Amino acid sequence: MHIETDKVTVNKPAEEIFDYLADMNNFEQLLQNDKIEKVNTTADTCEFTIKGMAKIGLKTVERNRPEEIKIESFGKVPFNFEMNIHVKPAGDNTCEAYLTFDGKINPFMKMMVEKPMTNFLNMLAHKLAEIHNN
User: Fold this and answer.
1) pLDDT 10s per residue in the chain (134 long)?
2) Do the beta carbons of residue 116 and residue 102 sit within 8 Å?
3) How many Cβ atoms sit within 10 Å of the Cβ of residue 44?
4) What angle do CA 101, 106, 111 make, to 5 degrees?
5) 3-state secondary structure of 130
6) What is the CA radius of gyration of the chain?
7) Which residue of 9, 10, 31, 46 could cross-link 58, Cys pair, CB 3.0 to 4.6 Å?
8) What is the pTM of this model?
9) Dihedral sign, CA of 105, 69, 5, 133?
10) Sequence-ordered list of residues with C-beta below 8 angstroms from that of 33, at least 6 positions apart, any chain
11) DSSP 3-state assignment of 18?
């Protein structure tokens, strides 16, 4: 299952946004939502529970400053996945960011999780813009 989020414009330089996202401790701020609970972070990992669904674990596996952060599933997760965060300069002190997600799931499970996962990933992208554009 492949998902690409909305592209969001962030009014900060790409390097600054990359550095923010490269430290998974900052994901606690991105995950502030009434549907997210039990957030636990380190510089390289983030674990949380989506209410009514599953526990999700993320682990940073590669940082390519300032354009891409590669993340993989971590711990006990319902399915394995890879997620990439893309940050592209878009002018003076502005950048564009989006996420791509590739999950290794069967067709039946895809029908159940594709829409909620797309909504969740878009929420992360828009929350990034909201935090840094205010």
Assistant:
1) 999 999 999 999 999 999 999 999 999 999 988 889 999 999 999 999 988 778 899 999 999 999 999 999 999 888 999 999 999 999 889 999 999 999 999 999 899 889 989 999 999 999 999 999 97
2) no
3) 16
4) 75
5) helix
6) 14
7) 46
8) 0.92
9) positive
10) 123, 127
11) helix
Q: Which residue has the tokens 């939502």?
A: 33
The domain of 39 spans: 2-133
| Dist. CA 71–CA 103, nearest whole Å | 12
Structural domain count of the chain: 1
How far is residue 36 from each of residues 26, 56, 64, 134, measured CA to CA in Å? 15, 10, 28, 22
Can you tell me which residue has the tokens 């797309």?
118
Residue with token string 């492949």: 2
* d(C-alpha 63, C-alpha 22), whole Å: 7
- Looking up residue 11, the CATH number of its domain turns out to be 3.30.530.20
Give the amino acid at 113.
Answer: V
